[in-house]
Amino acid sequence: MKTSLLFAALFSIACFTSTACLKERTDAAVTDDPFRWLEEIDGPRALAWVRAENEKTLGVLQSDPRYRHFYEQALSILQAKDRIADVSSEGSGLEQFWRDQNQVRGVWRRTMRESDRSQDPKWETILDVDALAAAENRNWVFEGANCLQPEERLCLISLSDGGKDAVSIREFDLVAKTFVADGFYLPDGKQHVSWVDSDTLLVARDWGEGTLTQAGYPFVVKELKRVQPLSAAREIFRGEPTDFQTYPFVLRDSEGHIHATGVARAISSVESEYVVLLPDGPVKLNLPKRAEIVTLACGRLLVKLDEDWTPSEDNRFRAGSVISYDLDEWKQDPLRAKASLVFQPGPRQALSELTATKNFLILTILENVQSKAFVYKYDQGAWSATPIPLPEHTDVSLSATYVEADRVTFTVSSYLRPTSVWYFDAESKRLEELKKTPSAFDASNHVVEQLEATSRDGTSIPYFLVRPKNARLDGTIPTLLYGYGGFQVPLLPSYLGPEGRLWLEQGNAYVFANLRGGGEFGPQWHQAAQEAAKQTTSDDFIAVAEDLIRRKITSPRRLGVIGGSQGGLLVGAAITQRPELFNAAIIQVPLLDMLRYTKLGAGASWIGEYGDPAIAEQRAWIERYSPYQKLVAGKTYPAPLILTSTKDDRVHPAHGRKAAAKLAALGQPYFYYENINGGHSAAANLMEEARQLALEYTYAWRRLCSE
């Protein structure tokens, strides 16, 4: 349970002696850590170490005859001309960001809507990022565009140096297809921007000393006018330096009319306060801290709840619900407007996505980790839902929304079925499949099963097993087990293109575990593995591994684990707690030193997920599983492959660096590779992504498939 500030203060007084001892142990641990120098991201000594480690790892894995074959296969799939890329709606057309062998950094392009429905759309280039990078001698990575509605002519383009979360923002004219001369420009930083009108922005960014949170995110929002220097921007809201971050929002309907402007003050990664900016001053909304304003639809304001809430005796809502307010009533008095229910999850259900068209609301809902889609309509004071008959046993995600015509497109995917795009007209109820990606691998010999393992506390943990149809269950199938389990993010089925070609086609298996801490079953599933209960995620993961072995699908000799970021922490915990269960571990951009994570990268922003190691009570529960500290002499670990990025400004590369250095000091085998670019994805372009896949599967084959 989260410790209140008052309780924390009383606790520190009551437990002064133990806290002092803990501080003494902490200071000693910091002093005794011989690898702190690796925390200096661009330090000459640290970078020399990185180069030496990269050379050693690449020397082994790239010299394996499988590597070149895997790289070429992965690249051919990633660069395929007939693959399906995400699109978004814009005016009378659709936009898409596209990368291939000729456009390494990518091209932002558009097509007319009817053209996109054909198998060979006619695309028009808006911005060539490769050409821009060459002209400016920068390694630009396109991070999206924020266009002013409803005209969607003026856009704010976000560009990242090498894939970092920090971006520079420039104003772009979509019709002229050029950056606006003397237009809005925001230098590099972690920042959030919302259009008010063509001459006004609301901006949260680094405004100078004392305007960033401890996690390195902005907590001051200002109004910036056209031609104004940043120094002249007018402050409209200030959060607290102890917050996660603060960002502006503008509530617009489908016709572009503004109904409110405001700021969201994220107190932590899981708790927020919403403030609307009224003529008489800011007003904090009467919402629970675990709630999110999501959209406007059908003349109503929609809010998603991540905790139970009783705003009045006759109005009670369960966690995971969506509620709505009459927009006119809410604007007149946002503190007294009454909410009504839109959606309430049933057993083993969770909201996945929602979007608004002109007259309808479209929801995708998870039921036992499989997607269903619905049209919601508001009429005479109530919402009614109609199912959309999309393919079953798949993941359904919203792709593009045509707000003026009540139409949407869905992307439908599963582990073995190639991704397809479906078009749906909510008014006429017409549904059709527009296009489908050709198969990237032969899936005819595999099947998907949904199984369950029993965790330490008796909870059933579902997982998907993708295995050969006719495999003998004698423990010999080389198997990779993937997990995440954090931040209420669900792990959903998606087509295993490169993974299918490099791993499944050869008779191997892949497993995806739906662990507590994720969002597969809504907020409660997440909160069951938060803070003091974070070890629960690892218990679930280990339970799935044991279940695979019990069923004789695989064995410790043939079982490997894989995960990134929070999933990297998960894998690190699994191999330090139960190293005998695994013979391979692929650890991507991981959190590993949990006793110092708040001091590294954006770590302080995740205190709401893990707890604060600076507080004695919370440090105690973190210390029990922190993988870096659990690497000790006398144990044999499964020679992990650790992958990081120098440009990762979210999860600091020191987590992976220090773990590799400690393994070396313990005389334990390992592989370490740090991509200089790539940000938190560890890959800034398709070639780097193909290289990472080839390294991972060369490693997996060497560890799990060799005799």
Detailed description of the structure:
This is Prolyl oligopeptidase. InterPro entries: AB_hydrolase_fold, Pept_S9A_N, Peptidase_S9_cat, Peptidase_S9A, Prolyl_oligopep/macrocyclase. It comes from Bradyrhizobium yuanmingense. By secondary structure, the protein is α+β, with helices and mostly antiparallel strands. It has a domain of 298 residues: 3-Layer(aba) Sandwich (Rossmann fold), CATH 3.40.50.1820. Helix content is 23%, strand content 34%. The chain contains 16 helices and 39 strands. α4 packs across α16 and α10 crosses α11. The two termini are 48 Å apart. The N terminus is likely disordered.
- CATH-assigned fold name of the domain at 42-74 and 440-704: Rossmann fold
**What is the helical fraction, as a range of percent?**
10-25%
User: How are strands sequenced across the largest beta sheet?
Assistant: 32-33-35-34-36-37-38-39
Total beta-strand segments: 39
- Characterize the overall form: globular
How many distinct helices? 16
The CATH level-2 architecture of the domain at 42-74 and 440-704 is identified as 3-Layer(aba) Sandwich
CATH evolutionary superfamily of the domain at 42-74 and 440-704? Alpha/Beta hydrolase fold, catalytic domain
Task: Determine the N-to-C terminus distance.
Answer: 48 Å
InterPro entries: AB_hydrolase_fold, Pept_S9A_N, Peptidase_S9_cat, Peptidase_S9A, Prolyl_oligopep/macrocyclase
Domain Peptidase S9A N-terminal: 30-436
Signal peptide: 1-20
GO molecular function: oligopeptidase activity; serine-type endopeptidase activity
